[in-house]
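ok so i was messing around last nite and threw this chain in just to see what happens. nothing serious, just curious
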Amino acid sequence: MSIGPDTPDMRLWTLLPAGTMTIMAGATISPSLPAVEREIAAGPNGPLLARLVLTTPALFTAPTAALAGAAVDRFGRRKLLLVAIALYLVAGPAGWLVSSIWALLASRALLGVAVGIVMTASITLITDYYDGARRDEVLGRQAAFSGLGGIVFLLAGGLLADVSWRGPFAIYALVLPILILAWLHLPEPERRAPQADDPNPVPLARGRVAGLAGLAFASMVIFYLVPVQIPFHLAEMGTSSGTLSGVAVAATKATGAAASAIYGRVARRLPRRIVFAATFGLMAAGYGIVAIAPTPLTVVAGLALFGCGFGLLLPGLNALAGDVATEATRGRVVGVMTTCLFMGQFASPLATQTLIASFGSNAAFAVGAGLLLALAAGFAARGPLAHAVP
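result:
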């Protein structure tokens, strides 16, 4: 039987690849960072500027997501999503053509604007189309699909980075089929129009929204040690291969995708606070291994364990956003969460560079492990963190 353009099956199979656009924005070029530093980021600020190539999109995604959240609630999801995917298709491959670090950073800024709208609109559409356990299942599938896409992008980026630092930017052209799918298969959901006398954006849940925002920010500051620092961490261990860097970071994506795929089943059986405690506990154990790893292979093993936790984190945060929002405020709540996620990504190298310069990347991963362990304990002990989740 043929599948029509507005059937639930085609909606799902359009939203799944759309979810890969966020990870594509950063992970694809991670293996190129050392070469970017050598080729176009010379000077005393070169090491920081090279790292900012990866995280600059996050700086622009953050404020864009907050504005996009209000816009999708007011004007609808579909049109904004299509415009954002088209902008992504222009800004992403631009890195192939630029000849200066500043032009590259400018193109990455435009990419960040696109990502902010795409992520906000696509997650909001999932919360519109699905409810309850089905929503958890779809969020887990999207995260799993994104993780699998991340593996492909990282491996392809690593291989292309060994040929030329510009090579990974060609991967962004793969967004064209996603634009076509979104045009054909994502209808604007039917929903109640916002009324002038609606209550505040998140009635009776401000504390939970604040907890969601803080958790998203802290998680990304710690997580982004992986794509930003792992290539340099391996270089400190005497390994400068872009392919090996891609394989190392892809280990996180592989186990993360597997964990995300079972998120729906986990969420049906355990309270959310226990899921979050397990999430941060696994991440802490993985970083602890990376911090003391004597060989690159041990680093890969630590990242694989870390990925088991991280694979539960993003669908958990997205599900929490759906829990605390109303129909009229879904876009705004998702926008707040997305803003904090990407502010955390941008802040990560700024927060860790001094520590790394003084004590090495091992120290940064050790500190990250300690912070993650504290988060796990906070949820497990029914402390203030546990009250942030329903």
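not much to say yet. Residues 1-5 have pLDDT under 50 and may be disordered.
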